[in-house]
Amino acid sequence: MAPFKNRVTGLFNIEYPIIQAGMIWTSGWRLASAVSNAGGLGLMGSGSMYPEILREHIKKCRSATSKPFGVNVPLLYPDIDKHIQIIIEEGVKIVFTSAGNPKIWTGILKEHGIKVVHVVSSSKFAIKAVDAGCDAVVAEGFEAAGHNGREETTTMVLVPAVVRAVPVPVIAAGGIATGRQMLAAMVMGAEGVQMGTRFVASEEASSHIEFKNAVVNAKEGDTVLTLKQLVPVRLIKNKFYQQVHEAEMRGAGVGELKEILGRARAKRGIFEGNLDEGELEIGEVSAIVDQIQPAEEIVKNVWKEFQEGLSVPVKML
Q: Which of 25, 26, 73, 299 is a Cys-bridge partner for 271, taking CB atoms 3.0 to 4.6 Å apart?
């Protein structure tokens, strides 16, 4: 399949404007390198890595692919300064930041020749990201998995709003797992897509097989945005969610919710496969993800369907 040229592929020097989200407990060097080798952009999720583990993954990813790859850095996590230093020392050229103020680190990263992209949930934050010096933004609708925007703006509304608000390339995220969904995002003005949930259900993802099976078995309505008093997060409804929901219904405060959440909930569910007590972070689009595939196959299928969609006439009465 012929490479595609636009501002996103040019910015990252990749063949297809398909980015694999850097997700905690899921996106290690195996997944990132597989996506990059397939022509997309693979990202490692540093949020679940100690600094030296991140360094190890960067080295292994570089050994596994000669193509561009990057690191996702959630700015609300501890040890950010150590992560940034390792990224600079190891010569990583692409960083996606999220969950925090991009102004703090973007300038430092760009001084070292690193392309910086920030994940946003509103036009207001997109403008701030551009003002901070970001080269592109990811407009992530609230259909997405994991930590989410308080605005609860859908991808269908958010993408054209952000495209209208900023001059830099916009990458659409949230509720995208197929080539036709990618095409819809591009029609709305996006120049690429970032997919998380679709790559959770990949052979190379480091998430537990029980979690992967839960993703492919999920149906419409099986995910919910919850814990809004803390940081809104989308997850699969399970025993842990029911405990949170019952507490919220009786008016539990932030302190009690933090106590229920505890520590390492996401690790317990995503990495260890505890489907009852874990925080099973996944997006709404899991409802149409029905099989676990190699990452290369996912990239190729999405791109093939995107190309086929370009030639399909609009259905009219």
A: 25
SS3 47: helix
Tell me: do 111 and 218 sit in the same domain: no
Beta bridge partners of 286: none
Same domain, 244 and 295: no
At 160, the amino acid letter reads P
Q: Which residues neighbour 196 within 8 Å (Cβ) at sequence distance 6 or greater?
A: 20, 21, 23, 26, 144, 145, 146, 173, 283
Six token digits for residue 46: 């540093």
d(CA 266, CA 272): 9
- If asked whether residues 75 and 187 sit together in one domain, one would say yes
pTM: 0.93
How does DSSP assign 198-262, residue by residue? HHHTBTT--S-HHHHHHHHH--TT-EEEE-TTSS-EEEE-SHHHHHHHHHHHTT--HHHHHHHH-
Q: Would you state the pLDDT for residue 265?
A: 86
At 244 the pLDDT is 86
211/202 Cα distance (integer angstroms): 11
Count of helices and strands (H, E) across the chain:
14, 11
Question: Helices 239-249 and 254-261, interaxial angle, to 10°?
Answer: 170
Asked whether residue 56 falls in the same domain as residue 153, the answer is yes
Domain hosting 147: range is 7-207+288-310
34 phi, psi to nearest 5 deg: -65, -40
